[in-house]
Amino acid sequence: MTHVNQDLFDRARTVIPGGVNSPVRAFGSVGGTPRFLVEARGPHVVDAEGREYVDLVASWGPAILGHAHPEVVAAVQAAAARGLSFGASTPSETELAEEIVGRLHAAGDSPLQKVRLVSTGTEATMTAIRLARGATGRDLLVKFAGHYHGHSDGLLAAAGSGLATLSLPGSAGVTEAVASQTLVVPYNDEAALEAVFALHGDQIAAVITEASPANMGVVPPAPGFNAFLIELAHRHGALVIFDEVLTGFRVDPAGYWGLSSRAGDVYQPDLFAFGKVVGGGMPLAALGGRAEIMDLLAPTGPVYQAGTLSGNPVAVAAGLTTLRLATDEVYARLDAVADKISTAASDALSAAGVAHVVQRAGNLFSFVFSAEPAHDYAAVQAQEGWRYPALFHSMLDQGVSLPPSVYEAWFVTAAHDDAAVDRILSALPAAARAAAE
Ligand code: PLP
């Protein structure tokens, strides 16, 4: 038995808070030793002890083609050879913006006309909020409990992802003044949203919502909920920010908005935030919307935003190549793999007598350990979440890497071939039995 991962973790903790550069990586809610990864290729990751795992984390979403796709790596190498960062405009930034805008236009009557590239999803949502405040001249922001939009101050109220994993209501260091400008509403609750608008409607700049939440586990919007919230916000002169950082270009070529539009559920948010897939595994994200709103950004407008590494040429090469390779066949494969794994996991849990519900939005899925589906954060928190660590560790011992928290989606890639899927399926029965104990 080697202790390489444990030794690396111990060493990291002496110079890095908690030994990690993003909290969920510390295995806090599942216990045990985090795996330190040294390589990722196709559907697999390899840890510092040389053990290979079939991966269902996919770098938390970006790797839809699988890890280190040869054409993406080649594009990154070619871009790097031409220069790592120019701090000036490049032709490929416009190509990426055109690709993003074009994808949504191909899916329906898209409100997305202009795009600004940034480096992280946090920046994309943070800037979208500043833009909404600048456009409306109002201060208040409405967010939903359990939705995660990154770690900027005003968005750390009742947030999902790492805050859910650590059971934190918010973050220390966020001032009362900032927190008081974020109104938190239970998700999928039309009456609660109406009540907030009845009280504060003329002061609300924007509602920010995950297009389909996946940071408290997967909790899809109730039929008609996105259209309802957009109509309500617009009636009160507020904007709607559609956070597609996680869903964008993953659940459909045009994200969750595209998936909905193709299904006839037509609605028009004002601003979009994208991240993860759009950067193909490199630090790149984007916000976009109608031209008259986006042109309020500097240098054409009064809302300031900037970035030394915004539109970085190496990151743009990764994003653009990933999107160009993400054909309809890729999305069909993602759906098929998600079907197989979610069905097999559900069958295994049923056979082991574990009450659960598969929660699903396109190819994103997760499980709640309860008899009823969860439609909001309170229901997700009330599940038998204590079952997850045993399931997680059984899978890990059998060579399958799941997200280390019950509050995260399982991410498939198009590189999950039949051999990788079979390895997952054969590990599930024992893991489900472990969850039953
Ligand atoms: N919005 C959503 C829906 C996310 O899932 C995330 C990250 O998980 C973010 C925003 C923040 O993105 P980043 O981690 O790139 O800052």
From TrEMBL:
Cellular-component GO terms for this entry: cytoplasm
Top-level class of the enzyme under EC nomenclature: isomerase
GO function terms (MF aspect): glutamate-1-semialdehyde 2,1-aminomutase activity; pyridoxal phosphate binding; transaminase activity
Modified residues (N6-(pyridoxal phosphate)lysine): K276
GO biological process, one term: protoporphyrinogen IX biosynthetic process
InterPro entries noted in UniProt: 4pyrrol_synth_GluAld_NH2Trfase, Aminotrans_3, PyrdxlP-dep_Trfase, PyrdxlP-dep_Trfase_major, PyrdxlP-dep_Trfase_small
Annotated SUPFAM superfamilies: PLP-dependent transferases (SSF53383)
Protein's pathway: Porphyrin-containing compound metabolism; protoporphyrin-IX biosynthesis; 5-aminolevulinate from L-glutamyl-tRNA(Glu): step 2/2
Subcellular location: Cytoplasm
Keyword Cytoplasm attributed: yes
Domain of life: Bacteria
Catalysis: reaction(s): (S)-4-amino-5-oxopentanoate = 5-aminolevulinate
Keywords: Cytoplasm, Isomerase, Porphyrin biosynthesis, Pyridoxal phosphate
Cofactor: pyridoxal 5'-phosphate
One Pfam family cited in the UniProt record for this chain: Aminotran_3
E.C. designation(s): 5.4.3.8
Family recorded in the similarity comment: Belongs to the class-III pyridoxal-phosphate-dependent aminotransferase family. HemL subfamily.
Subunit structure: Homodimer.
Full protein name: Glutamate-1-semialdehyde 2,1-aminomutase
Organism: Labedella endophytica
